[in-house]
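Contributing new complexes? Match this layout with calcium ion.
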Amino acid sequence: MKKLALAMLTAVCCISTATYALNLNDSFKELDKDSNGTLSESEASEDALLHDNFSQIDTNQDGQISFSEFQLFVQ
Ligand SMILES: [Ca+2]
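Output block (do not edit by hand):
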């Protein structure tokens, strides 16, 4: 019985991680209005948190937030 509970817990854990990753991807896509795979400063300004932290999130300072930069910031 204990084994089953652990297996279920593991499954739930994996599902929520996948859902979280999916939501992150969805949020990014929603902000990426021109679907070029990066967020420009004006796209990021749709979100107050991204707007306020833009230069901090844009770690390579190219003026665009890539998905990996976004992911690093949100995690
Ligand atoms: Ca874009």
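Reviewers usually confirm one structural detail per submission. For this one: The chain has five helices and two strands.
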